[in-house]
Amino acid sequence: MQLCRNLRWKSITRDLDDPDEILAAFARNQVPYSCLETCRSWGPDDELAAPERCGSQRACFVPSALTLRLRKPAPPE
């Protein structure tokens, strides 16, 4: 999964410390998403802002370092 740096949701500040919680928020998909560029639920290209839609296929996409944190394997127990 690639995420755009401009994708936002209500609990992003709380979720940033826990990649599993970010994925859980996306799986629940019960929060409104917005674009930091437009401060609306759509991006500068007038397309919907959502995790599954805000990828590298869009001209407005800016890669997020958060994507790398989501891909990290879980530490051994």
Blueprint of the fold:
Blueprint: E1 7-9, H1 12-15, H2 19-28, E2 33-35, H3 66-71
Antiparallel strand pairs: 1-2
At a glance:
The protein has helices spanning 12-15, 19-28, 66-71; strands at 7-9, 33-35. With 77 residues, it is an alpha+beta fold. It has a two-stranded antiparallel ribbon with strand order 1-2.
Based on secondary structure, the structural category is alpha+beta
Helix content: 25-40%
Terminal Cα separation, in Å?
25 Å
Binned strand content: 5-15%
Biggest β-sheet: count, sense, barrel? 2 strands, antiparallel
The largest beta-sheet arranges its strands as 1-2
How many beta-strand elements? 2
The figure for the number of domains is 1
* CA-atom Rg in angstroms: 12 Å
Spell the H/E element sequence.
EHHEH
Return residue spans where pLDDT drops below 50 for at least 5 consecutive residues: none
Number of helices: 3
Molecular shape? globular
What is the typical, i.e. mean, pLDDT?
83
Describe what you observe in this structure.
- The chain has 77 residues and is an alpha+beta fold.
- The protein has one domain (7-71).
- Helices cover 26% and strands 8% of the residues.
- It is built from three helices and two strands.
- It has helices at 12-15, 19-28, 66-71; strands at 7-9, 33-35.
- Strands 1-2 form a two-stranded antiparallel ribbon.
- The longest helix has 10 residues, at 19-28.
- The mean pLDDT is 83.
